[in-house]
Structure of Blue (type 1) copper domain-containing protein:
Amino acid sequence: VIGVALILGLVILLVSRWSGDDGGSGPKTEGAIVATEFRFTPARVESGTEVELVLRNEGAIYHDLVIEGVDYIHLKVLPGEEDQAGLLLEPGRYVFYCTIPDHRDAGMFGELVVG
C-alpha cells in the first residue's frame, strides 16, 4: 500500500506543470526520480523544455545520475538524500544513467523525453 501511494505521488508530481511567460521556453516541469538498487523509478520522464529534476536515493548505497549530452548535470546522492538541478533542454530524447561501475549494466538507466 505504501509503495502504491509512493508511485501515485511520483506520477502526480511528474505531471504537475505550470505555465508563465518565461521567454517562450515552454511549460516548466518538475520531475522526481527515485534511485534504488539497481533502477530508477520512473525509468521514463516526459517534460517540457524547462525541467526541475530531483533525484532521491531510497537505496542502501550511493548513486548518481548523468544525462548523455548534457555535461553540466551530475546529481549525486547518498542513501536517504536528494539532489536537484534546473535544466533547459532542446526537444528530444535524452538517456540518463548511474555512473557507478556496473550499475548501468544492471538496469540503472532511463529516458528523459523533452518536447
User: Anything to note?
Assistant: Residues 3 and 35 are 14 Å apart (CA to CA).
